[in-house]
Amino acid sequence: MSAAKSLLIELGTEELPPKALDELGAAFLRGICDGLSKRGVGASLEQAKLYVTPRRLAVYIPEVAVAQPEQSLERRGPAVNAAMDADGNPGKALLGFAQSCGVSVEQLEKLETDKGAWFVFRTVKPGQAVAALLPEIVDEALKGLPIPKPMRWADHDYAFVRPVHWLVILHGSNIVDGEVMGLRSGRQSRGHRFMHPQPVHVADADSWLDAMRMAKVLADPAERRQRVRDEVARAAKQTGGTPRLDDALLDEIANLTEWPVAIACAFEREFLSVPPEALVTTMEANQKFVPVFDAHGALTEHFIGVANIESKQPGEIRKGYERVIRPRFADAKFFWDEDLKTPLASYQEALKNVTYQQALGSLWDKSVRVAELARITANRVGVDAGQATRAASLAKCDLLTRMVGEFPELQGVMGRYYAQHEHEPAEVANALDSVYQPRFAGDTIAAGKVGQVLAVAERVDTLAGIFAVGLKPSGNKDPFALRRAALGLARTLIEGGLDLDHKALFVEALELLPEAALAAGIKPGKDGKAPAFDAGQRRTALVNELSEFVLERLRGYYAEQRFTTEQYEAVLAVAPISLVDFDHRLRAVVEFGRRPEAASLAGANKRVANILRKQQEEHGAQSIGNHVDPAHFEADAERALAQALEAAQADNMGALQRRDYTAVLARLSQLQAPVDAFFDNVLVNADNPAVRANRLALLGRLKAQFTAIADIARL
């Protein structure tokens, strides 16, 4: 390999979108590394480093070869036995091949294989200089960036996420001469827009990062994030409170600044009468400010802004931050005060004028359906049905309030506050907020039982309704977030311990839908005519489809918890009607798998399943009886297995009723010895039909005892 030097590629731009910056940078790094790798350029790609700021995308690789390695090329020509004429002279095909290779026939070599001999042309192509390849590599990487709407500027043909202004490509201390998007590469970078506006001379690739730091630019994203944390902590000390800086806000602030400096600010205490979520939403989402809380977790009048400059007059920046937040808070206080004048329940009538989905009616229609499902569900799990239906009737009302109209992300949260203000029971008020949980990956389910019941009813109606009208997810498209709804439903049932038949829930939800909605989802056939509509058949098909959809989400849920596909499939095979029961069985299967007897018994169950399936295929399902007659036993091993099965069944009766599946499988694991002895000493397919049928019935009983929990054979 040729000598290696460090490589720096920096593209300077106008301010890049902060939420897309990390993704753009990662794609740029990947594109550069792929381009080098594709061209066979030796480089320590695992040490490649990405640097991004609001005004630049940069890649640094500590060792990149100066040139590609030599490439050995081989072209196969015509077969030897067909390339020469009868006089031993080269034929047209051979002459043409030699000419295309730029050599004479005598310069060609022969390749001997077990299938014959061929003329071949072999040569060594010298590797290109990497400097000559880099402009093309950079151009390819930029074209591969995920940019939904590229921007054009001036009269150029090219486009990018933002206008570009400078390009630095250095291989060691050498400038890589080239042009990308109209920019000629050089060694002149740029520092902070305000604190170091003059050009920055970069001596070589290794000194670029320090040169940026000297020019008041922290190019390393990790270093910049840490500075944001440190600065926010420093400013928070001045307030005496505790800042709330989550990862999402931290990332966005870091992607908005090149030299972050935190400034402690404050607003009028009168705004604290507004629900804190509204104020925090304004600070974090709209202004990128960091809220400050007291020792008891209550929001204070302090907040922290992070400037992109080390100002000589920080007080002026503070005044600006305080001035910009004041009207937003004033609006929030106005919305809050005005909304309190209108009882939450008074919005119910107006819900009739808000369309939920054309075939499914208005938000009022949805609320009525959800209330009925909540009543049914609450009665089944021992929750106050009156509170559940009251919560369902109020759950959509806050969507019509001024506050939620301005801050849609506060739906549910504001419903809780308005319900509390009107002295609704705490369980009802809290349910209006927790019905939306889990809101995102990693979020908890609703804490209260009324909230859990409402969350189940809401998601069951949404899934049943949208599936019924034929708008189920397709590929990456899921406009109604049905995958999230299905996972939220499964998690609420399992983690909330709501022992319900999930198929029955869908049956009831579909019964509440108008037949017109069920018919709307039927697609015409190839002849353009809609098939005959039968509401009952349509509901049955939808129930099975919905159940499969939920169970598929459950597969991912358990995969994240490190359950194996085999463990999941073992339980799925016995189709428990309750997801709580599914969870109990799955965890019991995991415990069973840790036992030393598990592998042997799983293998035996698989053997039993194969024997019984073959019998059914050849002689029909009725050929395997349920009755085991001791009079037809011929071997001690089958008597011992029958007695062991009978004892295990008797012992497990109570555990099965308690759903203590771990205990059941632990008891069944004691069958290993008699099962192994049976297969070692007994021929199932005996010549005597009565003996053979009796042995098949015995194996059927063995399989039934295990599949009462899960299909152990799948392990």
UniProtKB/TrEMBL annotation:
Q: What class of enzyme is it?
A: ligase
User: Primary place of residence?
Assistant: cytoplasm
Q: Does the keyword Protein biosynthesis apply?
A: yes
Which keywords label this protein?
Answer: Aminoacyl-tRNA synthetase, ATP-binding, Cytoplasm, Ligase, Nucleotide-binding, Protein biosynthesis
What region holds the DALR anticodon binding domain?
Answer: 604-704
Give the top-rank taxon of the lineage listed in the UniProt record for this protein. Bacteria
Q: Which reaction does it catalyse?
A: tRNA(Gly) + glycine + ATP = glycyl-tRNA(Gly) + AMP + diphosphate
Q: What is its EC number?
A: 6.1.1.14
Check the record and name the InterPro entries matching this protein: DALR_anticod-bd, Gly-tRNA-synth_bsu, Gly-tRNA-synth_heterodimer
Q: Which GO molecular function terms does the record list?
A: glycine-tRNA ligase activity
Instruction: Give the subcellular location.
Output: Cytoplasm
Matching PANTHER family:
GLYCINE--TRNA LIGASE, CHLOROPLASTIC_MITOCHONDRIAL 2 (PTHR30075:SF2), GLYCYL-TRNA SYNTHETASE (PTHR30075)
Outline the subunit composition. Answer: Tetramer of two alpha and two beta subunits.
Q: Which HAMAP family match?
A: Gly_tRNA_synth_beta
Family, per the entry?
Belongs to the class-II aminoacyl-tRNA synthetase family.
Put simply, this protein is called Glycine--tRNA ligase beta subunit
The organism is: Dyella flava
Upper classification of the organism: Bacteria, Pseudomonadati, Pseudomonadota, Gammaproteobacteria, Lysobacterales
